[in-house]
Write a structure and sequence with these properties.
Number of helices: 3
CATH class of the domain at 40-94: Mainly Alpha
Shape: globular
Number of strands: 3
CATH topology of the domain at 40-94: Arc Repressor Mutant, subunit A
Mean pLDDT: 87
Strand order of the largest sheet: 1-3-2
Low-confidence stretches: none
Helix content: 40-55%
Length: 94
C-alpha cells in the first residue's frame, strides 16, 4: 500500500526569505526552529488576517481539521523559538 497523496496547499505569499533571531546573539550560536511555508501561511491567515479556521482552510485548499493541526504546530514552533531564544527560519517543503 502506498502512502496517501499529499494535497497541494494554496500559499498566497512567499515567506521563504524570512528569518528571525534573538538580539545580541550570533546566528551560528543558536539552535534553529524551522517553520514550513504552509505553517507560516496558516499563522498569516488565522492570526494576522483574523480569519476563522474554516475560512483559512478554504483559502489554503485543505480541510478544517488539517488546518487545525497545521496552525497548532506553527504556534508551538513559534512559541518554542520565542521562549527558548532560538532562531526561527521559514523553509519551503521539498
Amino acid at each position: 500500500m502506498s502512502p496517501r497523496r499529499k494535497i497541494a496547499r494554496n500559499i498566497e505569499a512567499d515567506h521563504s526569505a524570512v528569518c528571525f533571531k534573538p538580539c545580541g546573539t550570533r546566528r551560528k550560536e543558536l539552535e534553529i526552529v524551522y517553520l514550513f511555508e504552509d505553517e507560516m501561511e496558516a499563522i498569516r491567515l488565522a492570526d494576522y488576517e483574523g480569519l476563522y479556521q474554516q475560512e483559512c482552510a478554504e483559502r489554503m485548499g485543505i480541510s478544517r481539521p488539517t488546518f487545525s493541526r497545521l496552525i497548532e504546530r506553527a504556534r508551538k514552533k513559534t512559541a518554542d523559538a520565542l521562549l527558548h531564544t532560538k532562531a526561527l527560519n521559514i523553509k519551503i517543503k521539498e
